[in-house]
Amino acid sequence: xxxxxxxAREVLDSRGNPTVEAEIxxxxxxxxxxxxxxxxxxxxxxxxxxxxGKRYGGKGVLKAVENVRTEISGILTGTDPADQxxxxxxxxxxxxxxxxxxxxxxxxxxxxxAVAKAGAMAEGVPLYEHIGxxxxxxxxxxxxxxxxxxxxxxxxxxxxxxxxAGLPSYSECLRAASxxxxxxxxxxxxxxxxxxxxxxxxxxxxxxxxxVSEALETILEAASDAGxxxxxxxxxxxxxxxxxxxxxxxxxxxxxxxxxxxLSDHYVSLTKEFPLVSIEDPFFEDDFETTAQLTKKIGNxxxxxxxxxxxxxxxxxxxxxxxxxxNALLLKVNQIGTVTESAEAAGASFENGYRVIVSHRSGESxxxxxxxxxxxxxxxQIKTGAPARGERTAKYNRxxxxxxxxxxxxxxxGKKAFGL
Length: 420
What we know:
By secondary structure, this protein is α/β, with parallel strands linked by helices. It has helices spanning 62-76, 84-95, 105-123, 127-131, 170-192, 212-225, 260-273, 288-298, 314-323, 333-336, 339-351, 369-376, 390-406, and strands spanning 3-12, 18-26, 29-34, 139-146, 159-163, 235-239, 246-247, 250-253, 256-258, 276-280, 303-306, 328-331, 355-359, 381-383. The strands form 3 sheets. Strands 4-5-6-10-11-12-13-14 form an 8-stranded mixed β-barrel, surrounded by 6 helices. It has a 3-stranded antiparallel sheet with strand order 1-2-3, with helices on one face. A hairpin with a 5-residue loop joins strand 1 and strand 2. The longest helix has 23 residues, at 170-192. The chain is globular. The N and C termini lie far apart (46 Å).
């Protein structure tokens, strides 16, 4: 089979902003994939090409769409969709810039994911089997209290996550998350009033809490109310996204102005107070040194995750590995721009004892590719928002179907995914 046509169109993401949908035609079948978009983005991420001007407030993507229809189409039409690496290398070489700023990473990632889906169809296998031989259902990390750029309230920590790692299967994790999410909704209404259950970009609630301790305590209370045991069945995680509250050498968080060392001590205190299993981007995006120091302090107990620190870039990841900064990679395909480069980052992580969490973006779509990537690459962890909003539940529901397809062959790591 060959790629008969490469096309693209401008569609909307979950925030109502334009994004790129790529379409690959193979044997008359049209396969699509949609590029996600982040709100809290790292400086070193691959470049998202926007049109500027008045249309869509400057956020239109017609230039990126045209790049797919013309230049990318020109090099991929007539090629084998099963050769993912060849397609991705061809696009990277065609772009010719370090951050895919000419064609746009939103163009290349949509096409790369569509090629992966087309390759799976050509081989007659599910996407997770096409891109890897893993059969690991990931432990989901649910962002159920939103802060930072995802919510717009006083809470500076961007994500407070529920991690039901003590449950025996993926589907039981999802059920627990849904029940705790509803319990949290009732609890927040009682504590703060009806407006407390307004939701942020990732489906989590955005209550008027001021500190991460207050948010985490509320999640644990909701879990207990729903009948789940904190520290045994239910654990917590957080994405600090600390670059967003870093200015002039200090961190403005939880009502305090802290140095990097003081913030490190704050994290250590939180790990003693709460059953935290993962802290993401604890310091600003270029602070490898303090991240390494925190990893040395608590990395044997808590997963320290590089998102803005690594941006799914193998070069930055290898620097982190060399310096001992973090012990896990947050993998976002659109941060680097192709499936192949993402797979390389995952492989480098595994080879060096780092864990991998496949992640969504705050601007998402109905596309479910990342669910398959997490299973096929055997990452054991996935982060794709609250158990609410269609663009989030689409990913979780896809994993339910995969769990059913794999049956007894499915592996669920549970607490082992976090070294517990």
